[in-house]
Specification:
200 residues, alpha/beta, Rossmann fold, 6 helices, globular
Length: 200
């Protein structure tokens, strides 16, 4: 079963353990320290991070490839009285969004589901979309290099090597938040800042 169908099934069965009213504490702590601008929420799900940012003055584009998730996110944003531009799309194909248009991007648990080609396309999209100096906050499940089987995850050395071309790593925090419903999964938060140079 492909990853899109896996997530469609989660939403259709209402098995969405990552659904909370508010985004994780790390997002809540960082966003108020940044001057509001234009933000991108990758793998937005029901829109909790998008709505949180929009309430604080951000202009937000949010992307998820599950139409049901986007439908609910739109309803929740309307109920909260905020405007968010929600898009049904894969995070590996963001050609419709403006180059160098974003001051901040956040991914709370999407990238770790991508295979190597998908992650490379995701990275190039971020490099194109974020302004020089923009911040990118990533939460990801980690796995050991060469580990076979089990759920997907990112190998930290490969992740950092990929992002080194276009981003500076400002902070990495392991284990501060566990994957919902997966207490044994190792995870980490990464805060990157976009360099002026481009590689893609």
């Amino acid at each position: 079963m492909d990853r899109e169908q896996v997530f469609r099934d989660h939403y259709q069965k209402n098995e969405v353990p990552w659904d909370d009213a508010l985004p994780p504490p790390e997002v809540q702590a960082l966003v108020p320290t940044l001057a509001p601008g234009r933000a991108l929420d990758l793998g937005c799900g029901y829109g909790r991070a998008s709505i949180f940012m929009a309430r604080r003055g951000w202009a937000v584009d949010a992307v998820d490839f599950v139409p049901q998730a986007i439908d609910v996110a739109r309803q929740r944003a309307a109920a909260a009285g905020v405007a968010v531009n929600f898009h049904v799309s894969d995070v590996t194909d963001l050609h419709f969004l403006p180059s160098a248009g974003y001051d901040f991007a956040v991914d709370v648990g999407c990238a770790h589901n991508l295979d190597a080609p998908g992650l490379a396309a995701y990275y190039c999209g971020l490099e194109r979309l974020l302004k020089p100096g923009a911040c990118f906050l990533l939460f990801a499940r980690l796995k050991e290099a060469g580990a076979e089987g089990g759920p997907r995850g990112l190998e930290e050395p490969a992740l950092l090597a990929l992002f080194a071309a276009g981003f500076n790593l400002k902070e990495a925090t392991r284990g501060a938040t566990r994957m919902p419903g997966r207490p044994g999964w190792q995870s980490a938060w990464y805060l990157f800042r976009r360099k002026a140079e481009t590689a893609c």
